[in-house]
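Office hours follow-up: a student asked to see two folded examples consecutively, so here they are.
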Amino acid sequence: MLEILIHGAVSSAIYAMLAVGFTLIFGVARVLNLAHGSFYALGAYGAYVLTTQLKVPLFPAALLAVALVALFGVVVERVLVRPMRGSQLAVLMITLAVALVVEQALFLTFGSEYRNVPAFVDEKFTIGGVDVGGQRLLALGVGAASVGTLWLFIQRTRLGSAILAISQDPVAAGYMGIPSDRIFSIVMAISAGLAAAAGVLAGPFLSVQPTMWLLPIVKAFAIVVVGGLGSIPGSILAAMMLGYAETIVGYLISTSWTEIVSVFATLLMLVVRPAGFFGRRAAF
């Protein structure tokens, strides 16, 4: 039971980092960013390149990888998403195209082989008789801290208030002098940075290869559907539910069945409560 609690918490923290960024950009800009999983992959590959090929120390490499992916997210938002934001279908298509281009670029650059991202903590720790990798515990701590910090930032800062205002009524916020385009870029940077940080943290104990972007976007979409589109508390709750559900299924049945959990949860929620647990969009 303790092993399920610990590993479920680790999965939940990684999923929360992915889903909170995904739902944040939807709640503010009203766009579904299918390139979100690519930010996760680029974070992992960025840490790999900086540490193993450019010989940058691990901690600065991780920070630099997250910063570069956040900058890439801003470029994607300004150059590709912003001109098409009036059409949901156009944004879906262009962000999917970005994801596929990133995947092919990674294939051409690194091949299809799995890559090893260095771990921040190599040691294993024993908690209540359960051996847990130090990197997993670090991912749990940093994930929880990142999501909590984002929540405080949105609720307690002036910029966070501007983000809330845009999410609730962009027209009224514009009349109040809040620059919506600038806010969209900032939110995209936060979203991309969170996904990249998840990739950096999970890379050492998960598969790092060019197609790794697909599964995170499926899980992020499942989480925001279950939690409620645009709701950060809903995404956190759904991430915990999905993380523990997958862990329980993996231990009791088989790990090959875990990927079905997110799909089943999405279908069930769409049938029972299409708006998700927290009801409506933009419910920060």
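And the second, which I mentioned at the end of office hours:
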Amino acid sequence: MPGTIVELRPASAFPHEERATLWNDAFSDYFAPSHFDAAGLAAFETMCDLDLDSSRVLVEDGRPVAFGMLGVRGARGWVGGMGVIPDARRRGHGVRMMMALADQARARKLETLGLEVLAQNTPAIALYTGLEYRTQRSLEVWEGTPEPGRVQSPVPARAIDLDDAAARIGEPVLAQAPWQRELEPLRRAMPDLAAVTAESGGASATAVYRANPERVSVVEIAARGADPNARTAAIDAVLASWIEAGPGRMLRLLNLPAGDEAGARLAAAGCAVSHRQLEMSLRLEA
């Protein structure tokens, strides 16, 4: 708009209360609304290693109208949230924000910049594709309240420590986890993480999770072994252990790769895919 003054400022220049309001306004009409209070946003930023000095808030004529959060781990970065408030859209702010985050990532000498976008958000997918992001894989959010008896297994599950769980799951699997479910950062942020494993016919299934009276949030679940039926029995034993320990609790697993065998067992337990996302990535050049 003629005469409009647009500035990009570090997110660290704004208090959490103001940025939480901006986040909530930007996602108020989204396919999957997201809401934070100031304390919740601060905890999310810490857990997800979001760099407030490299993240940006876009100010239009003195009013914050858009934001973009840059997460950093090693040489890899990701967009930990980006949005524009409804009455400031269709002015190019989304492109400005994404280009600013890419510039910050290059300044940090990162190699890649990733993001997730809901599969039905075709305007955003077109924006990211135009900025040379490429789809890496499809991810699914699984949710549901399983009923006792929906899955059964003749083998028991047992609690194990997190180091044992990480070794059983294996580095190749852990290295492919979406940034929201990376085990080591979550271990630092969540002291109440727990782990469980089950073995059946030479196969095993291991999971890391966080539980409270209302919900089991699964951080990782993976099965190993040559026999698919034995892997199924082991996964079912893990699921049954959660269901039996807390009937009526919701079960939630964020961003499971599409086609993962755990998805079929979650469906058998009474869960369903609530959202599908595309994981996209931009290769950065110096």
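Two things to take away from it. The chain has two domains: 6-110, 142-277. Residues 113 and 141 are 22 Å apart (CA to CA).
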